[in-house]
User: Fold these one by one.
Assistant:
Number 1:
Amino acid sequence: MSNSTAPRGKLIVLTAPSGTGKTTIAQRLLKDRDDLHFSVSATTRNPRPDEKDGIDYHFMTDDRFDELIKRGAFIEWESFYDGTRYGTLHSEVDKQIESGYFILLDIDVKGAWNVKQHYGGDCLSIFIRPPSLDVLKERLKQRGTENEESLRLRLERASMEMEYEDNFDEVVVNEDLEAAYDQINSIITRFTEA
Ligand code: ADP
Ligand code: 5GP
């Protein structure tokens, strides 16, 4: 039986063009704050060397992803780059939100906009902006995870994503990591304590 007097949790969505630094910031927030629970997304891309299944993503085949779509398992999902799919699972969000937790999502701009539309005031959406596209390119190269083609696709998509920043509750520029982190942490505290 559900407890109607229990406080309902809320969502905090970090979004940004790939390579801006949202995973770096999300991981640090999760280390520093025990009031946040991460929503582990599903994806059809291959794991990077340092990534673990069930921790960074639920890595899966296209067939499995299709099956989950059919079952209605996703709150939202998107297909981009070369057809790689990413999605937010109901199972990562629904129970935790009912239990009153704050759930942190690290998702792309379109997914973030869909989640914001769905959850309204129960969702804080933060767009993280890179200082420039040139800096973004350098960060993606430095991360060492992309080949020439995937780098090109990510940068192409980044130009489109940058045009969406006005759709989000807050915009933070990630130039200096410490400054951006402090700013985001304070924004989240204002939201969780409101
Ligand atoms: P995203 O999750 O948005 O794709 P990442 O968190 O993987 O981005 O960051 C991309 C790369 O940029 C990583 O190598 C990370 O260490 C680096 N990075 C993140 N923030 C900064 C910053 N403020 N200055 C320089 N490098 C950064
Ligand atoms: P990466 O391959 O670099 O881990 O992620 C690529 C992009 O997919 C990033 O912008 C990341 O935030 C986004 N992403 C990760 N999970 C999800 C998700 O569940 N839904 C959507 N829409 N995007 C996601």
Number 2:
Amino acid sequence: MPGTATKVIVTGGAGYIGSHTVVELFHAGYEPIIVDNFVNAEKSSIKGIETILGAKVKLYEGDSGNKEFMERVIAQERGISGIIHFAAYKAVGESVNQPLKYYRNNLDSLLTLMELMKEHHIPHIVFSSSCTVYGQPDTLPVTEKSPKKPAESPYGNTKQICEEILEDTVNSGVPIKVIALRYFNPIGAHPSAEIGELPLGVPNNLVPFVTQTAAGIREKLTVFGDDYDTHDGTCLRDYIHVVDLAKAHVSALQYLGSKSEENSYDVFNIGTGQGSTVLDVINTFEEVNNIKLNYSIGARRAGDVEKVYADVSHANVELRWKTELSLADALKDAWKWQLSLKKN
Ligand code: UFG
């Protein structure tokens, strides 16, 4: 029903997690309004979203850190009730080489949005944080109360600083309700294969590297180290299907809408609660897709944590959200997505 749905700005809504969230918001009856500058996203993702939904979505092309531009978006779209803020740079290695680019972009956009929320009385924001704030936790699974560790990279530091900006703003009494979602490792793609991850250049992350190797785009996958203290010696992570992760944002908005206080700050881990090693991922990928992957064991990658997985009980109870999809589902969908790219 045009004009009656709750309007939500989704910065970075053309990106990997953002595009899946736009789909889930729409399904849940919200009106997502995408803001994206397409520096790390493709226009094709908008087409993919619209194909899945069978409807047009609203798109504003520009930088969410540009206040004048965002003022225009807010003026045009009266009655914005919330913001989901995905737009940020996210390459750990690049952030070490170009820290100023990361601090400028990732902090500016949040500061701009917070000022606008205050000035225009936009009450809710859901922020994309990361399990990177925990570093290598002392005990597993990691809960929201586990201590934050000094950031390993400028990227990780921007996530920590952004969480502090949000919390300090709430503590100052500004009438906004905030949720920071600490994502574990998002993988997979929409089961329709209309949207998915589009890494720029050589992927840093495991699953895009796996699918590109299986597709023959990369010759071989290197497993970074097999002498860690895990069941097979390779690093362990909590891999979550991107559609489950997207749905957590809908639950977060619903939770904010149901809260009676007008000023709050909450943090939730968003993972599956299960740890899988690199070899678990490779073996599952081979099994569910009936493919042999060319890989070999190499040296450890600098800065990798040995193992981390989430305690998700806080999100299960408070957000009434839980994952529905498995590692096998995610790896099937990732492969289907990779194959769809080959065709285009
Ligand atoms: N890995 C390989 N070979 C590869 C790529 C990755 O063996 O070619 C291994 C890594 O060593 C690691 C695991 O696969 O053990 C997962 O690596 P990713 O790069 O996919 O993910 P990370 O857990 O290292 O990084 C993710 C996010 C970051 C975030 C970090 C926080 O991508 O944004 O979690 O821990 F900062």
Number 3:
Amino acid sequence: MQDFTLSYDTFEPGAETLREALTSTGNGYFCTRGAAEWEDAGLLHYPGTYAHGGFNRETTIMGGRPVLNEDLVNLPNWLPLKLRIEGEDAVRLDNVEILSYRHSYDIHLALVQRELRFRDRAGRETSLRSRRFVSMAHSHQAGIEWTLTPENWSGRVEVVSALDGRVTNHMVARYRELEGRHLNPVSPRTFGPETIALKVQTRQSNIYIAEAARTRVFRGDDPVEVERSLYQMEDYIQQVLAFDVERGRPVRVEKLVALFTSHDNAINETLGAAGRHVQRYPDFAEALAEHESAWTELWDVCDIELPHEPRAQLLLRLHVAHVLQVCSRHTARHDAGVPARGLNGEAYRGHVFWDELYVYPFLNFRLPEITRGLLMYRYRRLEEAREAARQAGYHGAMFPWQSGSDGTEETQIVHLNPLSGQWDPDLSHNQRHVNAAIFYNVWEYYKATDDLEFLRDYGAELMLEIARFWASIAHVNPERDRYEIHGVMGPDEFHERHPGADEGGLRNNAYTNVMVAWIADTAPRVLDLLPASRRAALRAKLGLGDEELRTWRAMSRKMFVPFHGDDVISQFEGYGDLEELDWERYRAAHANIQRLDRILKAEGDDPDRYQLAKQADAVMLFFLFSSDELREIFERLGYAHDPGLARRTIDYYDRRTSHGSTLSLVTHAGVLAGIDPESSWERFMVALESDVGDVQGGTTKEGIHMGVMSGTLDLLQRGYLGASVRDGVLHFEPRLVDRLDGLALSMQFRGTSIRVSIKGDELTALARVEGFRAPVRIAVGGQVRELGAGDGWVFALPPLPATATS
Ligand code: BGC
């Protein structure tokens, strides 16, 4: 990786699918993997295209049992461009001699490029440079440019340009027994001599998708006369462009593409729209220039400069680009959530989990309109969440663990263990904590933006209904005189039930219970923030009586939190009594023990028996709340909160966590920032490397991890710069100041843009004139300043506390 570039200088067939995921290009509306244009889907290549909200449900009959799954559908492949020289077979990397090869991703431009020189069987040497982007300027637009130079020959070539609707979802090996056909053909079409188009429809959800491609050839600025021939089937259309090339004279093939779906705004019919739009598109260079301007604007607010840590610098930028490729302003204009694995692959079927908790902090302080749009994904599914709560015998709204098209529960009921080949029951839908995350996300968005209108019109209703759900799932244990929650799981998916229990779920997951205590305290405050008329109307609409408010108040004081041993928070009640695992034995026997659940189950054992964790669970509390906030929550609950609680609890679980989810790396790096900064930084680097290095050994090719990518950006902002909002003031408490030397980034706080930088032991905050909305209050080391337009403040950072340097 060099400046702003992720590049691979040799072709390695086995690494191609990973590279495709990492060099995907997208614009927050749709995203396409970085597959070579000339390759069809197979074991080594997988040219997938995915658009937000493009879901379809299919049933697979498994042993006579119908199993329903919803997938984010792989859309028709718009990439195909194939080169035939003198009527021979199309060039592929395995039928020519590769003289040089470079596959790169320009992070600044979100542009994927392949440059290759090859010698074919007839000894002809040819160079080909391919450049491709999905436009950040125009959400439906994408473009490919090929520059073709015959180096030692002249002759006739044919370029095949196609749109291929014969695609299925079959990327993820574990899902291959499940139905992967999601598209029905509708029709191919042409629009004049240069444009081919194809329309398909999802089989069950009836979404139309159309693509149109206009392919032209140029030498310099001049169009080249080409002979065109057409071939079409109901689910495939291609045009072959035949033309002469001369030794040493480059020609350019340009394929501009439009993609529309029937879920779009301002749409009549997708095929007509795609055909009309593509004909209006400019040539590749102009389209790329517009795309570049759009990215330049984004980098202006999103770049993070960290000049003295070059590796971290590059990976942070790579993560910024990927986060924006999946969640951009275009996303906010659509009905889209945050798919856990981006739009870069098929893992988790494009579903939306709780991972947005890790994604929003970066967006909240830069492009909050995107968070707002994504939160609306939840609001639009509130009715479904109410129904889910009602069906389960609760009140309020119970959002699903995995969400897709309409907000019903999409978690599968069986899950394939690739180690044993067994389909095990999947109880992970009991992760009701996703509801706490949604509540927390709305609140954090509000704190960063002061967007009271959002709270008034949407956010408060979401929060109140969630609070109400928690009040109904909780019950009082009279013996303890405390509220308890049974039958749920925390984020640690290795524990699905108490050992030997018939029922799924656990008693008193500490993370859930503490979040609920905080929610119960915060929900009434949300109500108080609303204008009186809105408050009254909302209470009337929801039928929210005083009695319920009294219950919330009681819950904020009486939720039960389990502890064990030496005053460590128990992940759930009874965790401390579980058996200890012989970690050394498993480490010695397996190269990778991140997925200990699969290993244990394949051995006929049961992870529920042991003190282990897939990922941060109780530890999440120290990640989401500052020590002051947690102390308040615990004191309100009547539990002692000594300064050592965090360290004891983190140490305890650190030794028992396999980090089977990369989210866990982010969380542990975050909680250690204030306790053991160097260890935190080590983990931060592991999290940064986790997708480029595919640390889980095979998961990244199935889609990037949105949570870890944006989580690393948040780590820098919240963990190391120490940015947090309290009482309308943006506080900075930098840690690891040596490493942050030279750090510069922009943030938006309550609508005002500020530039924050660290040089030596000084922190500078400057309220930019451009984008200034109102004075904002900033605090460093306990001193608070108000910054007006153009005001700067240089603050000498206090010496680091002893714990931070020891
Ligand atoms: C993690 C979840 C996460 C999901 C999607 C799972 O492996 O355990 O916490 O939400 O992946 O990223």
Number 4:
Amino acid sequence: MAKKTAKKTAPKKSVKKPVRKPGNRPAAKRLPAKAAAKKYVYSFAGGKAEGDRTMKDILGGKGAGLAEMTNAGLPVPPGFTISTAACNLWYAEGRKLPKAIEDEMMAHVRKLEQAAGAQFGSTTNPLLVSVRSGAKFSMPGMMDTILNLGLNDAAVEGLKARTKNGRFAYDSYRRFIQMFGNVVLEIPKEKFEHEFEAVKQARGAKIDTDLGEEGLQETVARYKKLVQDITGKPFPQDPLAQLKGSRDAVFRSWNNDRAIKYRRMYEIPDDIGTAVNVQKMVFGNTGDRSGTGVGFTRNPANGAKEFFGEFLINAQGEDVVAGIRTPRPITELAEVMPKAYKELRAFTSRLEKHYKDIQDFEFTIENEKLYMLQTRNGKRTGYAAVVIATDFVTEKLVKPNEALLMVEPASLSQLLSPVFDPAEWKKVPLATKGLPASPGAASGQAVFTSDQAVAWTEQGKKVLLVRKETAPDDIHGMEVAQGILTATGGMTSHAAVVGRQMGRPSIVGAGALQIDEKGRCFTVGGQTVKEGDWVSFDGLSGEVKLGQVATRPSEILQVLAGKMKPEESDIYQRFSTLLGWADKVRRLGIRANADQPDQSELAYAFGARGIGLCRTEHMFFGEGRIEKVQRMILADNEQDRRAALAELLPLQRGDFYGVLKAMHGEPVTIRTIDPPLHEFLPKREDLMVEIAKLEARGAVGAEIDGKRTLLRRVEQLHEFNPMLGHRGVRLGITYPEITEMQARAIFEAACQLAKEGIKSAPEIMIPLVGLVKELKDQKTIVDRVAAEVMKEQGVRISYLVGTMIEVPRGALTADEIAVEAQFFSFGTNDLTQMTFGFSRDDIGKFLGSYLDRKIFDRDPFQSIDTVGVGQLVAMAVEKGRKTRPNIKLGICGEHGGDPSSIHFFHKVGLNYVSASPYRVPVARLAAAHAALSVKVGD
Ligand code: PEP
Ligand code: MG
């Protein structure tokens, strides 16, 4: 629920360097004696490694994988890993390593020479190594890599002699100088490319491979001169100096702009550092019996059990990724090099069994001999995750509880949303990015008002609602639009909350959009989009594109809507099997936030067993209702107000009847009116304009008088701080007849259902309570009306009366409040707002800076602040239970659908969480994850 309070501004998306980087830390005075004794370098060679898979913190993901593969007896070229602790120390010591660690590394260099049977700088058998980064979390392509290290003027001849291939030796040397020159010496790549082009041109070579040994020797000479000219020093010939320089460059690359940006996006901490892997080179580019490739043990896009990947013959690793040559499908390797292919299949399926997860691997074949260079758990789409997890159980590779942990709860949303055809989506360039508020693919013609959205939809058009921000009276437009795109607002803004609740793809806070609602157009990146132009966006990634892109509906929704039989949809069956396993282990109940019968039915179909929050005011915006609500607000005496309320009564009763019925006897928490009344009236400025226009036309009589009365009332209702003003329980206290009407509508609906033989369990919830006396006041009304209705109807209904805990004072005095309240539902949206003192509608103005500067790790309106707001929740749980041991405890703020918040709510021992209908499956799985990994009270 957004309040029409102030304008919202998009969070700044630019990524600034964090103020506190490892290198900016106050330097540690001296290396503590204890640290010198600590181990910083770990070897892996000849079937034995000093590390293993459990040591990702120290060795990084790549280092831990290399160690594990070595221990498993796989053909891994020997090497060693310099730990992440060394990286952190390097920064702390002012960008150098203490001598003890340099010595430790030297000892490992000697060990590696022995294991590899080659020496650095040798003219007969030179040792060449790769130097690669590897943090705990994979950050593909973000940091630097150096290959062929160890080559110098002497070693290149050694390599030539050993391989009997001068062209190959000089090409390797050329590549090395270029990489080292760029990464370590920071010479722009173009300068090298320029020299290379000059040689190619002079020798009439069209492509790189047209250059022979002599041409490459000339390139090497030119590269060395370039290095000398730019740095004033010759290209380093000492392999150890090369190694130290490269190692330090990898450490330095931990803090390059793209690595920092990547960490922001994926919430990877800044202070964990990267490890460095030094490994004997094997060559995929020695000729036609060599090659290199990457792959997955299963298809990471759709989960199919197929060997998936690509390779190149006669190439080095970077050629596959760089896209210079088109790689071939990995299955063709079976024909080209059957023995290596068979081995690769055997090794990778062994790895899959060993890690109990799909593997993403890299390999090189040098003269028909296969080497494994990397393995890690493969990243996959939500769809693939569900397919793989269920297949792993069928194949008896894991147990159901382990399979549950193979699926990220949030990724389930992807299965419920329409999707773009990936190939079509790729074709259209990116226009901008916003906050991914509600997942799903949306493509439609831009409209700028909700009325227009409805009108065009009625004409059979597909529309995308583009607004600066949305407000409660946009609900009709939001309902019909393919998607909602706003320029301002955060993750709990109106567009985000309602978009998620409706399952409508939404992007909010796309600050680059300059929207002219009156002019019915927006501009972005210099392009103007007019009403009717096609716009598409992916609500999962936040990407916005201009143009039309075809979508496909989610099969799961089609089954739930009865348009497809469950047995016809493989993904539906897997989805419901997985969630069935989740339901067996979770302890938290799952409810939904819904206020319409159809939303409630969908929530039930998704597995919600109860409504945790029915926002009754949302019902006030339906067809032909707002006028009645306005009449109620405009009434300046109780009698007129009661007359208007009497007209609203049958409408609300009908809504409650539908919602209670859809829940099949499960509890339904219905909240009495919450927002400030002015939200139901037109804007002051709009009214003033309308009156001025009428005056200019010389209008007199009822038409203009009505507007003037409305304006007077709007002005009377004006508040400086509506969010802290006349809303919530305060409305019920000043206008008890509103509470009376709502209670009557609820109980009459329940009685009607009872007469039809349908059970219902209403729970009446009073919002914004900070004082027990507020609750008592309203509870007295509810109990009185309940008794009256039951007597009139001759039916008994069991019901509860409780409160939201969303004002800090409510949490602090929860023991007193529990005397009256039969349940608490934590309203963590308002509780976050009031605990921080951050307006939930205005946080967009500074959220970006707070995230950039790491003051926040995550938006606290999205993921619960366990330290502050969470402390209030935990305190209220304890105090509430002390007074009333069997008090029902739930949460209905937006955090109820956020997996990490659900962990917290599990831990503090709530009875249930309530999420928007489309997040119910996410909540079911997250609650299972919590139950599998955290004990209540831990
Ligand atoms: C809350 O404050 O957490 C809540 C659920 O209520 P609303 O978002 O309607 O203020
Ligand atoms: Mg609230």
